[in-house]
Amino acid sequence: MSLSNQSSTKSGHRPVQIIPSVLPADWANMGQCVKDLELAGVDRIQFDVMDGNFVPNLTFGPEMISACRKYCNVPFETQLMVSQYNCETMLEAYVNATKGPNGEPGVVIAHVEANVHLHRILAKIRQLGGSPSVAMNPHTPMEMVKNVLDMVDHVLVMTVNPGFGGQAYIPTMLNKIKELRDTIIDNNYDIDIEVDGGIKADWTLSQCCAAGANCFIAGSGMFAYPSLKEGCDELRKIALEAQAGKLL
Fold it and tell me: Which position among 48, 51, 153, 192 bears the catalytic label?
């Protein structure tokens, strides 16, 4: 785990990253969708992997993610909203599917609630050539990830309960984001904070950014715009303004 000079002060800001979730996309036309997202200027594309066990929904397998790779070069991110069994048995396939066009590490996110042996899963992601990251549900306290912060590149704070797109943002997550950010800075960790769930180009994104998040996952909050570029630009504008002290 590398240390970051960027996170050495509480006033320092990490680069804003806009990361669309493809849940609201046309799944029958996913190759074109990821190509369009790349042209819109996004920083990463997130695939929400759901297995019908950890969350009550089914979405994408590694083959579909791999198939999307030939349509764009933008980095991928896979959030494993799956049971421990599926995480362990399919981990290598998802890490490989998430890699960049030249084998660059893709972000692979394991849920703290789903994995009893979280250290082992995160270490395996790194060993397989991925960028290990951890997610926590809204009810999960920050302390649940405190002992793996030295192993991860990102921490995802869920601002809705995972499983479905289009849910309403839960505003009480702001204190968790602040607590997490303070812990990261106090230990000089090189970690991005992501937020996911009900994030739109309004006060939701603005307040999360002010609390310390710098990576913003938006599904319906981006796809609702007349064009994907308009959505990406508006989300980024709100985040940069929040970092400059202009809050909504």
Answer: 48
